[in-house]
Design brief:
With 495 residues, the protein is α+β, with helices and mostly antiparallel strands. The chain has helices at 2-13, 37-46, 68-79, 154-261, 266-281, 293-296, 300-309; strands at residues 26-28, 34-36, 65-66, 88-91, 102-105, 124-126, 131-133, 151-153, 330-332, 338-341, 361-362, 371-377, 384-390, 407-413, 416-419, 425-426, 435-441, 446-451, 456-462, 469-474, 487-490.
Length: 495
């Protein structure tokens, strides 16, 4: 019966593991196990000093602490006249595999609990008073009556309260799960905050570089303008001084001229006038200076933008296509920067690098580190595939484009833009892009796509890269009768 098993379990708990009797002056070791004081001292005389008979843990000291709570429980068990029955069992040593087991032949106690008031076996549980009672307690013979209380058999009470405890435990587990979910959400919020802070710092750093470049260019132009102003002003001041000197000279000559006009000697007058004309003919004309407006009033923003491109990292780079990877129906330009679908296949050697039957081609440049960006002109083509692939991808037979297979690409089919995820991700494109930008950050595991016409974001893959990655291109077949154009790789300097 369940109540009997409960009582037996209680009595077993109150027995010394060495003598298998109710504890007599129990002491507790540092490892947490309890023994009769006399038993443990006797054990230590025969076995290794300061080791626990149950767990075999070697203790640092030999001090024994009296366990008064356990002693009180053992005394109460004696007063209840529990009748132990004995059976054989052994005490293993889990930590010391080389130590012999402490084999003790005993009889496990067959426990019965008795009422302290009536000396009858306790078989009932009073739910009203929450205590064990005997049959005589029901009519209150010799004491308080439980007759009109709620009571049940002990094993029924155990089952009932176990169910209640299980329900409470289930409820607690649910609360713990909710709290753990909230805690994780809080951690996620903290992580998002940390990521946001990192991105803000990166944005500020990138724009600080551009601001520094633009400020430097602005200061340089203003400094050059001031230098031009000073040089021209200095020249004009010098010219003005010469003009004043020349004006004084002319006024003096005019005065002499008036004086000579009054002279009556015609020959002398004509001779001096001829000398004066020769002197004036030999004088240089003075000119004024002007600021070079073409330098300071031209297309300043565009001029600086073209210089800014050289400082951008990564700036759009001009890749070249690898003809050894191109499907035989693809036609590459002479400079290997554009690809289109041809009308028939070419006689090309069948190599492991070449795609078949998928009409694809890779760039000659592969990347194992760093940040890279390139742009591809797609024009009005009805179909295309673009992105990044791993060097080890399958290039023969059917291909399932997904990151697990080494493909991080997007495509256009039937006027729908999609990313190569599973399931496929449909991209929200407000305006049909004429040019697609592809950004690769190898260390951060990022591949992003943009409408390069206005740099609006289309999609981003996040992954971990472990091998060389190559830019991937496919003009597809024939656009299903719709417009098809070559895919052209562009660079910033080619815009």
């Amino acid at each position: 019966m369940a109540w009997k098993e409960q009582a037996e379990s209680l009595t077993e708990y109150l027995n010394c593991p060495i003598c298998l009797e109710l504890f007599n002056q129990p002491v507790i070791l540092d490892c947490g196990h309890n023994f009769c004081q006399a038993c443990i001292q006797l054990y230590w005389e025969d076995e290794q000093r300061n080791s626990c008979p149950e767990c075999c843990k070697v203790l640092r000291g030999s001090s024994l602490r009296v366990n008064r709570a356990l002693a009180n429980l053992a005394d109460k068990a004696r007063n209840l006249k529990l009748a132990p029955a004995k059976k054989e069992r052994s005490l293993p040593c889990p930590e010391r595999q080389d130590a012999p087991s402490l084999l003790v032949t005993i009889k496990e106690p067959e426990v019965k609990l008795y009422c302290a008031e009536h000396q009858e076996e306790l078989k009932l549980f009073c739910e009203t008073d929450k205590e064990l009672i005997c049959v005589m307690c029901l009519d209150g013979r010799g004491g308080r009556s439980h007759k009109f209380h709620n009571f049940m058999l002990i094993h029924e009470a155990v089952t009932k309260y176990k169910d209640k405890l299980k329900s409470s435990l289930d409820l607690l587990r649910q609360k713990v799960a909710v709290l753990e979910a909230k805690l994780k959400e809080k951690q996620d919020i903290s992580e998002i905050g940390d990521k946001s802070t990192g991105l803000q710092n990166r944005i500020s750093s990138e724009f600080a570089k551009m601001h520094q470049f633009l400020d430097s260019k602005e200061e340089g132009l203003i400094r050059e303008l001031k230098d031009q102003e000073e040089n021209i002003s200095e020249t004009m001041e010098k010219n003005l001084q010469e003009i004043h000197e020349h004006l004084d000279s002319i006024q003096q000559k005019l005065a002499r001229l008036h004086a000579k006009m009054d002279q009556k000697e015609t020959f002398s007058f004509l001779e001096e006038e001829a000398c004066r004309q020769n002197s004036e003919d030999n004088h240089h004309m003075l000119t004024s200076g002007n600021l070079p407006l073409g330098i300071f009033k031209g297309p300043l923003q565009y001029t600086v933008w073209k210089q800014l491109i050289d400082t951008i990292s990564p700036a759009p780079t001009c890749l070249t296509l690898d003809p050894n990877t191109a499907h035989s129906w693809l036609i590459l330009s002479d400079d290997l920067t554009s690809v289109r679908y041809g009308d028939k296949g070419q006689l090309l050697p069948e190599t492991p690098e070449r795609f078949y039957p998928c009409v694809c081609v890779l760039a000659s440049e592969g990347f194992t580190s760093g940040k890279h960006y390139w742009e591809v002109e797609v024009g009005d083509s009805a179909e295309w595939d673009l992105g990044v692939v791993a060097e080890s991808i399958n290039r023969k037979g059917d291909i399932t484009a997904m990151p697990e297979a080494g493909y991080w690409i997007v495509w256009l089919r039937r006027s729908e833009y999609k990313a190569g995820t599973l399931p496929r991700t449909r991209l929200a494109v407000s305006a049909k892009p004429k040019m697609i930008g592809v950004y690769l950050d190898y260390e951060e595991g990022q591949v992003s796509f943009y409408n390069a016409d206005n740099m609006s974001h289309l999609h981003t893959f996040s992954d971990i890269f472990t091998e060389r990655l190559f830019p991937f291109f496919s003009p597809c077949l024939n656009g299903r009768g719709k417009a098809t154009e070559p895919l052209k790789i562009c660079s910033a300097k080619g815009h």
